[in-house]
Amino acid sequence: MEKIQNIYKVLANERLSQQYWRLVFDAPDLSREVKPGQFVHIRTDERGLQPFFRRPFSVYRAQKYVEIFYDVIGPGTRLLMSKKKGDTLDVLGPLGTPFVMPPAETRQVVMVAGGIGIAPMLILSDVLKMKKYELLLLYGGRDRGHVYPMKEFKDNGVKVHIATDDGSVGAKGRVSVLFDKIDKGPSPVFIYTCGPNPMMKAVQAFASEKGLAGQAACEEIMACGLGACLGCSIETAGGFKTVCYDGPCFDLDEVKFH
Ligand SMILES: Cc1cc2nc3c(=O)[nH]c(=O)nc-3n(C[C@H](O)[C@H](O)[C@H](O)COP(=O)(O)OP(=O)(O)OC[C@H]3O[C@@H](n4cnc5c(N)ncnc54)[C@H](O)[C@@H]3O)c2cc1C
Ligand code: FES
Questions:
Q1: Residue pLDDT, tens place only, 84-117
Q2: pTM score above 0.85
Q3: CATH 3.40.50.80 holds for 108-251
């Protein structure tokens, strides 16, 4: 898969909820290459000074344009938030291994996402909606500000269930309160998950108990993004692996969540 570093034009940068933003940029070359689960590495300070390192973001959508979905948490994402239509963006990608597609016999595909972990799920549903699977999204957010309209998912035929810690939207509690929405079988179910490690650990335990397979998109603080510095290594059943190069997508039963 070809990696591209290029300067792209920002087409839109809008707030989707109290907490989350979506940035759209015009990158036809990148859009053709990227697969669900992969990420882009963005130089948020054009001078490369502060922050010095690029910042990784999952690709949220890659159709006519490339989109990322982000939470403003520090200097890099604050700079991203200040981008206006017509500004330029230095982007490297697509990076990392994509999600493995579900086995052909799968009937229900379940996406379990927490917070900003929703980001790789839209592009995944864009691809999976072409297949015969029933698509289910179980989404957990802290409160109303961490939830946003799920229109694009619903347009893709995804059945959406939401839980918030304070019960302000959907069910009250962690996303695990929604696990009873998952098919009891015997039809095969395949799970994708992305979000905080404790949430993915709970998904892993549930999948293990029910004998379900799946994939987890992991996150770690990154520097090079290319597998060179080993700064993003995590523990797996096969030893330490880099999130940026060996991942971010791993088999769900492979990762040792701490
Ligand atoms: C593969 C991958 C995909 C990602 N996709 C998205 C995405 O789609 N949308 C999005 O909003 N964010 C995503 N992230 C996280 C994003 O890269 C960070 O939020 C961003 O780098 C923060 O930069 P900053 O300069 O604003 O804040 P920083 O100053 O770098 O960080 C602010 C605080 O958050 C902590 N932090 C930063 N990154 C992480 C992390 N990955 N895990 C846990 N704590 C962290 C820092 O330690 C610090 O305390 C992804 C990360 C990875 C590795
Ligand atoms: S960030 Fe350098 S190896 Fe992953």
A1: 999 999 999 999 999 999 999 999 999 999 999 9
A2: yes
A3: yes
Cβ < 6 A, ligand 1 pocket: 39, 51, 55-58, 68-71, 73-77, 116, 119, 219-222, 243, 248
Span from the CA of 246 to the centroid of ligand 2 (angstroms): 10
Q: Which residues of 56-83 are buried (b: 16+ CB within 10 A; e: fewer)?
A: bbbbbbbeebbbbbbeeeeebbebbeeb
- Of 2.40.30.10, 1.20.1080.10, 3.40.50.300, 3.40.50.12780, which CATH number belongs to 4-95? 2.40.30.10
Q: Is 244 in the pocket of ligand 2 (CB under 6 A)?
A: yes
N-term to C-term CA, the chain? 31
